[in-house]
């Protein structure tokens, strides 16, 4: 890496200090660390710019549930993050439905761990650091630099009151939900998805709580509906006596009083008597479909910055890790071809859509449905559906019903047939949407035509669900 220090007015905004690297990554979260490790492993110069201090970095608001822990990208070896897995015994979701006086135990497919999130955050930073990435802490990115052809050429940040510029061939935006960089880039010559609004996000808050006695459900992720349909409360056991308790709601709803509502729920549960709160954090997370395109010339957005989150569960760690790795690999292609155009970066979008983007977009359909139904009706419906299929639908985006299962469902769901019929119509459209994502374009110039057909399917979804258009 070369560093040009200005001799006369070092760090002043008139003559900022300039760092030159191959790739600059904004944010030392999961997406940023996996991108940086991938690029550093290939021998390129990569700087990770993080607004938090070295001590605070990695401390992120999270429910601490890590789904798919068995198959993470190997840019940072699994053995590196395993020490943060504090509970690997969880094998099912426990859905508490007070409206129906029911508890549903639903298996969670694949490997799942509840983790010490801050420790995990430190370990992935350590992993990227060991791969050769350089971390610049206490450095707040405030702007981007872009040339006359619209190519993003770097970022401008503040460190200790001084302006620092980073010149880079590729900028990777891993700055999390509602990333500031996206307000700064001029996307007029790019396909980058700018159809983004607050109502497509969820506001969430969590506390880490220590309880005096082991909880009985230490092998389960506990979910409970909040008072609004598009919201839920969770209790995830980090250990038998350390619980991550939180809640969130889609920002289309009347705002919940997150801190008070959580306190109320905790007070009503005998297992939390005498509990001590050891950490509190809240944040926004994208509970929407992934960005149609997360590229612009010289620029890629990864993780929460491009909505790579399962919109029904809010799980975003795995998506962030894979998006980071894919963007890192595409940045390497761009560096090797000396070409940072969207045509070259496009393969990154394709890999995201192919791996999980299409699935998350189809899961978003159920989120849209949940904003349009009454919470009691929804809970009645969920309580009447077979658990295995619910689990499948929750994670894979679709499920199938055999004739025998249909009959069983029809009997158990008596009283909800109207909603069930509607649910099946919605499911058919969600499947159609997923099939359309399988045809995600192979080049940027074909995106607009693909979006037209996708929007036609979305219009049908709004019509069937009665929901207000989300996009
Ligand atoms: C309350 C809550 C609970 C959640 N629970 C779960 C869960 O149980 N399981 C799960 O898988 N996912 C969960 N998620 C989602 C998950 O936390 C995110 O999807 C994941 O952290 C995204 O990683 P990321 O790297 O994209 O962004 P982040 O982890 O948000 O990292 C972004 C980084 O960028 C830095 N940054 C931001 N702006 C700037 C700037 N201007 N300059 C410099 N640095 C900047 C931030 O300080 C941060 O370190 C939850 C989210 C919330 C809010």
Automatic annotation (TrEMBL):
Molecular-function GO term, any one: FAD binding
InterPro entries referenced in this protein's UniProt entry, alphabetically: FAD-bd, FAD/NAD-bd_sf, Geranylgeranyl_Rdtase_fam, Geranylgeranyl_reductase
Gene3D superfamilies cross-referenced by the UniProt entry: FAD/NAD(P)-binding domain
Originating organism: Haloferax larsenii
Organism domain of life: Archaea
FAD-binding domain: residues covered: 21-322
UniProt-recorded name of the protein: Geranylgeranyl reductase family
